[in-house]
Amino acid sequence: MNKKNQNQKNVKKPIYITLISISIALAIFIFFLPAVFSTKAGTNFLINKIEKKSNAKVEIESFHLTWFGPQRIKDLSYKDPNIDLDVDSITSNMSLLSFYKSIKTYKKLKLFANTQVDNLNVVIHYPNKPHANFNNVNASIKADLKGINSIEISGKTTENKISGNFTASIHFEGAKIQSTINAKNIPIIGIDQLLFSNNPKYQNLLSQILGSSLDLQIESTLDNLKGPINIDIKSTNANANLNLFYEKDKITLTKSATIVLNLAPINPGFANNITYLASQKNSPIITRISNNGFSYPLSPFKTQ
After folding, report:
1. What DSSP state is assigned to residue 49?
2. Where are the domains of the chain?
3. What is the DSSP letter of 262?
4. Count of other CB atoms within 10 angstroms of residue 10
5. Which among 45, 93, 46 has a CA at the least distance from the CA of 67?
6. Which residues contact 176 (CB under 8 A, 6 or more apart)?
7. Which residue, of 143, 207, 224, 227, has the greatest Cβ tally within 10 A?
8. What pTM does this model have?
9. By C-alpha distance, which of 142, 165, 143 is closest to 155?
10. What is the pLDDT of residues 145-197, one digit of tens each?
């Protein structure tokens, strides 16, 4: 009997040793998995994932991946039928799992991470429309486990030899959100194409109303999603200063507003119930809105 038990123990030892060896090998493989993806073969695997999801041609000089961050991408190039994009580097402290999910589907992109984008350049070239360029864009997102603390974005634009620039700053402190946006000579055709590329009903509408370029200033301080939003717009065709107050999915005016438009004839297909709208030379359309009793509901607006 003792001899039988001894034989059973001797049989179990190799099994235990095998299981332990497999576990150690698996742990080592998992530990070095980010390094595997950081190789040329791993980079090509991730590129194939991106290309299948986006119908685009993608080139990446190098990946540097770790389990818990940071993740680094160097010299990324992306080209699809309508957009060319290249960026010197992207660095984010998101985990490898979050990073992989963001590649599989952009809807799961985790922005609650420190992220730095250096020298992003974008060319928008939809058929039969002028090209719009956004150049030297740098972006910084600072965050902790509770969420985003700040977002900083700056860059330049060009379209038909018109050069512009923009900066945006958003800071979060508890329930308080402070935002400042400044833009100079922004090509409106580029905004049109970004917002309404998949919605023919509204394509070129902004360009028809505002003209070729836009100067924009926005300052806002919201506390518990309540507070003032001041907007100053100066474009080729329009001039407006809006002092708004946002609360509970609606906006009101804190001061009366004046909107001045110099319009060429608008294609009647752009808006229902408006068959023709234009201003005479040197005689702009002037709209004055009183702040007394003005209220406008806001609901989710789909541009795509």
Report:
1. H
2. 111-297
3. -
4. 9
5. 93
6. 221, 222, 223
7. 207
8. 0.72
9. 165
10. 667 789 999 999 887 777 889 999 999 988 899 999 999 998 888 888 777 77
